[in-house]
Amino acid sequence: VQLQASGGGLVQAGASLRLSCSASGRSFSTRYMGWFRQAPGKERDFVAAIKWSDSSTVSADSMKGRFTISRDKARNTMYLQLDRLKPEDTAVYYCASGSRIILSNTRNPDAYDYWGQGTQVTVSS
User: Fold this and answer.
1) How far, in Å, CA of 70 to CA of 38, rounded?
2) From CA 99, how far away is CA 62, in angstroms rounded?
3) What is the DSSP string of 71-110?
4) What distance in Å separates the CA atoms of residue 32 and residue 52, rounded to the nearest whole number?
5) Which of 25, 49, 82, 116 matches a 20 to 30 Å C-alpha distance to 62?
6) Tens digit of pLDDT for each residue in 84-100?
7) Are 84 and 93 in contact (CB under 8 A)?
8) CA R_g for the chain
9) How far, in Å, CA of 84 to CA of 22, rounded?
10) CA 63, CA 48: separation in Å to the nearest integer?
11) What is the pLDDT of residues 45-66, one digit of tens each?
């Protein structure tokens, strides 16, 4: 399984971005896919996760209302809509996939099996 994240960029505060994560591989299947982010010198933080079968979602409380996760099952692609961006949202955003994840560990990066390479989001003030 390969995950390819894209859509990052340099934007001003208040702007929006849409990140994509495309999954490939003949045997691709997943239970949950998720987004994490990592700012320089900080740990990798959970952003949001989506259950592949029914699109139910889990989001970090601090990002609810600004970030929206979704998926297109037919395209094996997950999205993260980032609205009203703030300078503190600057980070590398990673997508991940896990076939054994359950709801209680969606926020744990160690629960995920596959990771994309990350896409840089930089928000200027």
Assistant:
1) 20
2) 26
3) EEGGGTEEEEEE-S--GGG-EEEEEEEESS--GGGTT-GG
4) 5
5) 116
6) 999 999 999 999 999 99
7) no
8) 13
9) 24
10) 9
11) 999 999 999 999 999 998 888 9
